[in-house]
Amino acid sequence: MDFPTSVELHNGKIRITFTYRGKPCREVLRGWTVNSSNIKKAGNLRALITSEIQLGKFDYAERFPESKALKKFITTKKITTFKELSDFFTDTKALEVSGATLLSLTSVVNTLLRVIRENTRLVDTEHADILHYRKELLAGTIINPAMPNLAGQGRVSSTVNKQMAVLSEMLKPANRSQFIFHAPHEEVSRLQLSKNYPDPL
């Protein structure tokens, strides 16, 4: 009897293995009779679960409500949108930096939110999107929420480099925590510094 990848028999029952949030998981398929058809279905289920994990759509409790492994993940914070990541980042930084530094970081995060949009899904963000955001930061409209009628246009390279550094700092823990399984911020070059002075907004 041929077994698909990561499908095996354990104590006479069909068991699948997959990795979730960096931890190996083994789940016995309760009530599944051991036969060729169910073993093939187990391979398909395991492939579906792997796909859901990669897309950030996997719900452990829904798939395996009686699993003892649930306690390892039930309190794990789930972050899917850029707004949720922004809140997580600023909350974390509030414990690490001074009030003045936090104020500066929050200002940059708010700028990034206006460019990237609150509901943008992290799993949908690719390298090309990061390059687009960099271009928008460099050449797009500058809005000061306190003075919306005094909009400017474009930023100098040094300002954009600092903003992109914050974005990268936000996405690194998102990748390490496996909120996303890719690193769209990697290999984004710094802009060549211009000789103009930045707009204070």
From TrEMBL:
One of its GO biological process terms is:
DNA integration
InterPro entries linked: CB (IPR044068), DNA_brk_join_enz (IPR011010), Integrase_recombinase_N (IPR010998), Min27-like_integrase_DNA_bind (IPR022000)
Keywords per UniProt: DNA integration, DNA-binding
Q: Where is the Core-binding (CB) domain?
A: 80-175
* GO MF, any single term: DNA binding
**Any one Pfam family match given in the protein's UniProt record, by short name:** Arm-DNA-bind_2
Protein's UniProt name: Domain of uncharacterized function (DUF3596)
- Source organism: Citrobacter werkmanii
